[in-house]
């Protein structure tokens, strides 16, 4: 089992603290979604002028950067917005080559009042331009099951239109189940052959919360995490199990020192229980 966490969960940590805790808690990777208050990390010295030092620190710690979680949207409202995302994608594609990172997370994006057919047309056209940026590079864009592209059927429609091995899927196991009631088996049956990477979180329904649910430590909510993990293992999934602890957006949740350690323990216990055989509710 390969574990990673996104930096969304530790906005106050330095690079050294991230690396130290990753090793201490048993992680193999760190997925960058912002650092030190800057969401687009290529603007920072650690990922521009002092790249070599950053790479050396990861190599010495025997850690990977399995994914750069960008802000790129496939659906855009204007050519100006598309151009902005193209420039961002170029920056992350360069970082991927330098750090030997295989994936860049992208969003489908909110489609607003646009019809689904029109949105798919626009997203497919934009994606064709984005793919030119990574053509010939060992990099794959991962469409996250998120926002207006959470449904497996909707995501599959876009994948079919684009029809490229450099556009695959990041299965955020939380969003389809919690926001749409999509069972994990349904998600896998439609998208399984495209799933290369996963994000993990847990929650419970809380009607007075602005989202309608409250994020919580894994196992404290009611997502069928055992079923999800067992499904992935039974289907031969070999990718990362990445904790997306949304501390930046939800400051009320536990501190990373608690959540990151708990996640590693929880997932390793889950692995042991799946290996032991009998199906059980977790």
From TrEMBL:
<dbReference type="InterPro" id="IPR036237">
    <property type="entry name" value="Xyl_isomerase-like_sf"/>
</dbReference>
<dbReference type="Pfam" id="PF01261">
    <property type="entry name" value="AP_endonuc_2"/>
</dbReference>
<dbReference type="InterPro" id="IPR050312">
    <property type="entry name" value="IolE/XylAMocC-like"/>
</dbReference>
<keyword id="KW-0413">Isomerase</keyword>
<dbReference type="InterPro" id="IPR013022">
    <property type="entry name" value="Xyl_isomerase-like_TIM-brl"/>
</dbReference>
<dbReference type="GO" id="GO:0016853">
    <property type="term" value="F:isomerase activity"/>
</dbReference>
<feature type="domain" description="Xylose isomerase-like TIM barrel">
    <location>
        <begin position="21"/>
        <end position="268"/>
    </location>
</feature>
<protein>
    <submittedName>
        <fullName>Sugar phosphate isomerase/epimerase family protein</fullName>
    </submittedName>
</protein>
